[in-house]
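wait is this the right file?? whatever heres the structure
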């Protein structure tokens, strides 16, 4: 079982940028697809972005396309979410998770019930 720890959240003004990190323990991090999700206050957790095990495929929710970039560094066992041109509606707790079905596969999924090993989350607050 991989353990995931998110970091990099904070308070930023609209139009600003943040880079979230998801540090993974365990040797098998690089063999699985990964994803980012977010949960705004009073709302359900939603998909944000996913990346395949090789990094060759990515998938974004429409609302963040062109503003967010998901990437991974297998040497550092870390996944990233670069968030630019942030908007107040991006305010949420951000979580990373592993897709166990995406083992050595270019599969990318937005279905959160297909993910496991959830991190504890990092809070992003965008002020207007």
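ok assuming it is, sequence goes like this
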């Amino acid at each position: 079982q991989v353990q995931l720890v998110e970091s990099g959240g904070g308070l930023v003004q609209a139009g600003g940028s943040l880079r979230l990190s998801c540090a993974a323990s365990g040797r098998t991090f690089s063999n699985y697809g990964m994803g980012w999700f977010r949960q705004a206050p009073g709302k359900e957790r939603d998909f944000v972005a996913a990346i395949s095990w090789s990094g060759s495929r990515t998938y974004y929710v429409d609302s963040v396309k062109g503003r967010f970039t998901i990437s991974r560094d297998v040497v550092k066992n870390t996944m990233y979410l670069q968030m630019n041109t942030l908007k107040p509606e991006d305010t949420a707790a951000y979580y990373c998770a592993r897709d166990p079905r995406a083992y050595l596969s270019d599969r990318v999924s937005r279905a959160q019930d297909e993910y496991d090993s959830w991190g504890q989350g990092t809070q992003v607050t965008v002020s207007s």
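The chain has no helices and ten strands. so i think its the right one actually
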